[in-house]
Amino acid sequence: VQLQASGGGLVQAGGSLRLSCAASGRPFGSYATGWFRQAPGEEREFVAAISRRGGITSYADSVKGRFTISRDNAKNTVYLQMNSLKAEDTAVYYCAASSAVPIFRHGRDTDYWGKGTLVTVSQ
Q1: Of residues 6, 20, 18, 34, the one with CA closest to residue 111
Q2: What is residue 62's DSSP assignment?
Q3: 14, 41, 49, 101: which one has the fewest Cβ atoms less than 10 Å from its Cβ?
Q4: Between the CA of residue 6 and those of 23, 41, 92, 106, 108, what are the distances in Å?
Q5: Measured distance CA(108)–CA(88) in Å, rounded
Q6: Which helix (H) or strand (E) holds 91?
Q7: Would you list the DSSP string of 66-78?
Q8: pLDDT tens per residue across span 25-73
Q9: What's the rounded Cα separation, in Å, for the pair 66 and 33?
């Protein structure tokens, strides 16, 4: 499956953005999907993930209550709604997919990655 993330940009602290990840190839509903991010000089970290049919979600503590992951299998797309953005949310955001596990929190459990989209949150 091929993944393409979009929706990044520059936003002020406290603002919102919605990221999208469009998938092509095998049926999208076959994959758990999610988001990771990597800030400059930092290691990549888990952000959020959602199960194949959307019934299970998982979030990093740092984004819980502010970010919401969702998916539309008919549109082959997963979304990350980001509210109350903070400067520390600035990073390149990557979407990922896994056919091996029902949901993931680690990059090692994923099979596919898309190119990232940059989110910059200004003070």
Answers
A1: 34
A2: T
A3: 41
A4: 12, 22, 11, 22, 23
A5: 24
A6: strand 91-98
A7: TEEEEEEGGGTEE
A8: 888 899 999 999 999 999 999 999 999 999 999 999 999 999 999 999 9
A9: 19
Length of the chain: 123
Mean pLDDT value of segment 6-20: 98
Spatial distance between the Cα atoms of 92 and 120, rounded to a whole number of angstroms: 8
CA distance 51 to 85: 24
Residues with Cβ within 8 Å of residue 13, at least 6 apart in sequence: 85, 86, 87, 121, 122, 123
Please tell me the distance from the alpha carbon of residue 15 to that of residue 112, in angstroms, as a whole number.
30
What are 69's strand-pairing partners?
80
Sign of CA dihedral 71, 60, 98, 16: positive
Locate 24 and state its tokens: 């092509």
Containing 115, the helix (H) or strand (E) segment is none
CA atoms of 26 and 17, how far apart (whole Å): 28
